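Most newcomers find our protein records easier to grasp once they have seen one. Sequence and backbone structure share a record, each on its own labelled line. Nothing more is needed to start thinking about how sequence determines fold. As an example, a complete record with its sequence and its structure tokens follows.
=====
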Amino acid sequence: MKKSNLPYLITIFIGILLAGFLVLYPLNLYVMKPGHAYNVSEYVNVQNGDQDDEGSFSLMTVSMSKATPLTYIYAKFKDYYELLYMDQVRQEEEDDEEYNVRQLKLMTDSQFNALYVAFSRAHLDYQVTFKGVYVLNIITGGAADGLLKAGDEIVEIDGERIESQQMLAEGIEKKQAAGQKEIELVVNRDGKLLTKMIKLKEIPGSDGRVGLGIVFTESKSIKTDPKVNIHTESIGGPSAGLMFTLEVLNQLLDEDLTKGYTIAGTGEMLEDGTVGRIGGIEKKVVAADKAGMEIFFAPDDEVTEEVRKKYPDYISNYEAAVKTAKEIGTTMKIVPVKTVDDAIDYLDKLQPKS
């Protein structure tokens, strides 16, 4: 009698299901790991700028992806891989679309600040224009729920052009004081102007405050002479700000700021020139070393005694970068920077590479 193949086929089917589960099933976690180094000159172009430098400035990234059972297990045993819960990545009430919008806005802001700081340091002309109030996310059950969306730019309130964030808040307060609950907004959504009538109501989870129920920030643009084009469609977040600033300066000035070295770094660029703390710096140091970088600029953010007492393991970006550099045995020089001027001063004193 011929033996049945059914048990064998069942085993194969179960194996396929198990493999699919391990590889594809999404967990409520993210895996963060070292990313890559990207030559900033490939993303930044200053009109008629100096681009014949021998060295380079590179921005660093981390790679972030949804965890599956397989990548979860792998991350548990792999150095410089980190598992993050959803609330460690997203803000409260933030969905996938709103998270992506926030990351892209942070990148846009880093570009604005880079241009603002670079042109200020180079003593060249620029013009700043306030564009409106940028919506980052909508609070569920709030007045704007279903009417506004992340990425909208509020440009008018009750027929008046908005010229500051404060103007929006004051407009809402005036409505309340007058006993009126409906407000007219004009928003720029994907290049189209839309009029939205919104009835103000209590913000969910607040202490009784009435408003739109949105998280927002200001939106500004900067016009420079010479013109600068920055293309970073595939990169989000604010951490490339410092390296954008240095690359713009390097193309604006005739001298080679890099002195022939391959220079990486990270840090948010603030309007006053301060270099802000970022996440995942250990992964960026690993990625920079792997890419053969010779110098790495790390934010030297201040950690107060109060914070150290409350969180004994909390260290500055610079301290974390130095610690990682020792662990991986890199010869890459880790340089602390509190401001963009610290980075410029270091480069001014650096001997050209022979």
Notes: Residues 33-93+114-124+227-349 form a domain with the Ribosomal Protein S5; domain 2 fold (CATH 3.30.230). The CA atoms of residues 20 and 39 lie 37 Å apart. The longest strand covers residues 126-138.
